[in-house]
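Hi Y.,

Following your request, here is the sequence exactly as I used it, all 210 residues.
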Amino acid sequence: MAKTTRRAGRMASAGVIREAATTLFLRSGYLGTSMEEIATLAGVSKQTVYTHFADKEQLFTDLIRGATDRVDDFLQHATALLPGTDDLESDLLELARRYLAQVLHPELLQLRRLVIGEAGRFPDLARTYYEQAPARTLTGLASCFRRLAERGLLRIDDPALAAGSFAYLVLGRPLDRAMFCGVDEALSPADMERQADEAVRVFLAAYGPR
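Below is the corresponding structure, written out as tokens. Let me know if you'd prefer a different format.
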């Protein structure tokens, strides 16, 4: 029983360390954050932090790789929704709105900016983030669109190209604006709906059945 309690305590402290590190990395960047500050905010000793993470680089890497797990939920939703759809336009609208809400989430935007800002210092980590988040999302969308084309619901010769078109129509302008101007420039809920509606309208005009 004591061993189980200690293990649970170690897992809990790892969680609060990750939360504190995320807050500080987003606030001060990689160089502006110290392990001592992370320990203080987490309410643990510096030694406890080093018990879980060998150094700041390992902790930073752990956080960025963990952020890509959010892609799984979106892809599971997409693969459950689209291939067997009975109302393609309605389901594409739902997916587009979910896509916008996920990518434009303030914390995810800040993490994306952090990864880009540190890409020169951590090129392999930046590549991993790209492959596990944006690229994997496009691959999943391409698979869905391929199956829709097989059903005759879309006219697509290149599913990967179509997936890229869909992603840019949905995210291009609002993501650029948020990345360059900050999270305060993100779309309002009403603007997000209009953005999704127009993206799906244009996408179906190009790829929908005649």
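The domain at 68-207 is CATH 1.10.357.10 (Tetracycline Repressor; domain 2).

Thanks again,
Q.
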